[in-house]
Automatic annotation (TrEMBL):
Protein name: Bifunctional diguanylate cyclase/phosphodiesterase
Swiss-Prot/TrEMBL keywords: Coiled coil, Membrane, Transmembrane, Transmembrane helix
Domain EAL stretches: 24-274
Keyword Repressor: no
GO CC annotation, single: membrane
Segments forming a coiled coil: 10-37
Length: 288
């Protein structure tokens, strides 16, 4: 009896697994097509200087405009692309698109692009980035590449070597999702990052969990001592903004600042924001 039901459970899981594998295969095939069919779009989310709210840059976040499923979020296809190697092609496409878009902006704002672990381990990555900068005419200092610490685990020496070569080009390197990995501190020790992005899982718990508040404060202190600007991601409330400002966090990113949006939503948005920042300044001067 037990054996019977055991086999039933096995059959059930086997079916589930086959289903998952089939789904992944379909996704991989469709994704390959999506790159050539230009179904991918880059959304941009603003980053604001904490001190005055002025927009100082944007992060490029890829979306898949699937003909049937609609807008697919990156967490549903980036892991698949990473697994089957498609990420190199996809990542190159995002990099090119983001740099070309940023080069066309009327203000020299910074553009942040996410790099996957596989990309960081490609020997030709610095050459590619160099080529894209020249082709798009974007100044290297305006490009910021975001990596997570897992990118250093595949081939540590190669990844580190690539980071050094990228930095030599004048590109900035940010550590993304800080605090969520297994060895965030040793990663921080191994390379002179230009920015630390404290993960939203900590930011969302500011004032909700004492421990999270303490951790955020400690990371900000760490950044200060190492002279690395810290960005808070996932900022959603005024209370979080006030806290982060008070703790002299450098930049803020999150729905409270602005949601990711398509390129044509940007120019009006940044102008409005810049106007608001200017007005705030006038107000402060008038008061003071
Ligand atoms: P990430 O680089 O840490 O990007 C931040 C994510 O947080 C984005 O999710 C953004 O939409 C979301 N977010 C921003 N503000 C808030 C907020 O206030 N509240 C909440 N709950 N979420 C917020 P998204 O766009 O879904 O991207 C998820 C992840 O996918 C990214 O995390 C990044 O790791 C990856 N990704 C996105 N685009 C690319 C890409 O072009 N290449 C690679 N390799 N990875 C990418
Ligand atoms: Mg990022
Ligand atoms: Mg992040
Ligand atoms: Mg994150």
């Amino acid at each position: 009896r037990a054996k019977e039901s055991g086999r039933g459970v096995y059959r059930f899981f086997k079916r589930e697994m086959d289903e998952t594998i089939r789904e992944r295969r379909t996704l991989a095939r469709e994704l390959r097509q999506a790159i050539t069919d230009e179904e991918l779009v880059v959304f941009y989310q603003p980053l604001a200087r904490a001190a005055d709210g002025e927009v100082c840059g944007f992060e490029a976040l890829v979306r898949w405009k699937h003909p049937v499923r609609g807008m697919v979020p990156p967490l549903e296809f980036i892991p698949v692309a990473e697994e089957n190697g498609l990420i190199t092609q996809l990542g190159e496409w995002v990099l090119r698109r983001a740099c070309a878009d940023a080069a066309s902006w009327d203000r020299p704002l910074r553009i942040a692009v996410n790099l996957s672990p596989l990309q960081l381990n490609q020997p030709n990555l610095p050459t590619l980035v160099h080529e894209v900068l020249i082709a798009t005419g974007l100044s290297p200092s305006r490009l910021e590449l975001e990596i997570t610490e897992s990118a250093l685990f595949k081939d540590y020496q190669r990844a580190l070597d690539n980071l050094r070569r990228l930095k030599a080009l004048g590109v900035r390197i940010a550590m993304d999702d800080f605090g969520t990995g297994f060895s965030s501190l040793s990663t921080l020790q191994s390379f002179p990052f230009d920015k630390i992005k404290i993960d939203k899982s900590f930011v969302e718990n500011i004032h909700r969990h004492d421990r999270a508040t303490v951790i955020v404060r400690a990371v900000l202190g760490l950044g200060r001592s190492l002279e690395i600007p810290v960005v808070a991601e996932g900022v959603e409330t005024q209370e979080q903004i006030d806290f982060l400002r008070g703790e002299s966090c450098a930049e803020l990113q999150g729905y409270a600042i602005g949601r990711p949006g398509p390129i044509d939503s940007l120019s009006a948005w940044t102008l409005a924001r810049a106007a608001a920042a200017a007005a705030a300044e006038v107000e402060t001067k008038a008061r003071g």
